[in-house]
Prior knowledge:
This protein is mainly α. It is built from 11 helices and no strands.
Amino acid sequence: xxxxxxxxxxxxxxxxxxxxxxxxxxxxxxxxxxxxxxxxxxxxxxxxxxxxxxxxxxxxxxxxxxxxxxxxxxxxxxxxxxxxxxxxxxxxxxxxxxxxxxxxxxxxxxxxxxxxxxxxxxxxxxxxxxxxxxxxxxxxxxxxxxxxxxxxxxxxxxxxxxxxxxxxxxxxxxxxxxxxxxxxxxxxxxxxxxxxxxxxxxxxxxxxxxxxxxxxxxxxxxxxxxxxxxxxxxx
Length: 235
């Protein structure tokens, strides 16, 4: 028997389910202006890390040429919400953290980054006075730079993972609602739908929609290719 891959219902089902997932992601994007907290998902980890790396002066006096911690976090949040490239976000964050370094908060930062407090304070004073760093100071500043980079990288990677997991989960919830509603409409009445096989089928379709969305086309094409291959093998 010759099977036409184009007439396979399974391929059509995969494409349709993937299309539902794509629609769910699109609807989630459309909801972001209405529900702003979606854009902020994951930023909490970045906020905590940056706050630890931009401590205030012990005397509450703001040093000259230093961006306040509140403004630093607002700037980084704006980049996060607008979807700026992750590498650029980390580079901007590191620059703002280093710019915030002063002789007053250097001892606190030294504890946070596990760098020699005296040397880091000397580095801060040398930067303000435009004095060349000594070799020990340069080594301490290099270690500080490396540790700050590692801390920010961990924070941003974790935040990005949290954001992707949450958006996938929210898109899956939207897909389930859409599939559930579609099944209800097809059933014609609530009594014929509630706790019936069609309802559970709709929920299953909704749960599968978002994982299938990125690979639906390739999976459908691969299935057709597999059928063609098996036909050739059997001849």
